[in-house]
Hints:
Strand order of the largest sheet: 1-2-3-4-5-6-7-8
Largest sheet: 8 strands, parallel, barrel
Distance between the termini: 26 Å
Order of helices and strands: EHEHEHEHEHHEHEHEHHHH
Amino acid sequence: MFTGSIVALITPMNKEGEICHSSLKKLIDYHVLNKTKAIVSIGTTGESATLSQEEHIEVVMLTLKLANKRIPIIAGTGANATTEAISLTKRFEKSGISACLTVTPYYNKPTQEGLYQHFKAISENTKLPQILYNVPSRTGCDLLPSTVARLSEFKNIIGIKEATGDLSRIHKIKKLVKNDFLLISGDDATALDFMQLGGQGVISVTANVAAKEMAQICSYALEGKFKNARFINERLTLLHEALFIEPNPIPIKWLAKKMGLIKNDTLRLPMTPILNSTRIQIEKALQYANLQEI
């Protein structure tokens, strides 16, 4: 369930900034229909940074309810305080979620030993499978392969979402961990190359609006049919790039609204509405990708 195309789901909101239940259901149905392998609920793309912990839990539980066991749900449970990450993880024990995605602590820039102790403490306080998440461009710290190797010794730390965009990381991690340790891309632009080098899937932003295409790309890649995968991925190349012209999830929420997947592209401050210049570039990428409005 943790290979192939996994979506980093956006969190739809109404104009007042409250969670939009009907749009969330539409998104989940869309991913079930288009064979997305799993949903990450309230990861960083889901705006975990601007939701209260109560809202965070509410959205994950609502996603579970609306999914109704049709698709696995992975809960984002990262925090820059270890005690908070443990507390959040514990709230999902026996809830029905399939795993936790835990981002490295942000802002406080821990050492490698600090990162090891952080994830070790979380692992020791839960039976839920844990997927590490390394995205130094957003957090200010980098979970190095040697530390990943140490953490992989914990039975419930099952893999990593590697979002550096550095393809050399795959080989460096693979030679230090067991064969069943999952390597999942967190960078749409390099995800196919990542899989060709030995990765098992992608936790994707692009999949929010191109679920069918991302599922097909990953399916072909896992079968070793890279020519077929590249044929589809080439159409999405401009979109992969355009969706990060402004900070995620500003562009993807606007595009999801344009495509009819959500009612509003509401964001919470300090995230601000999309610029007109960005909209123009996304529209060009959308035309090239030949995606249809829902």
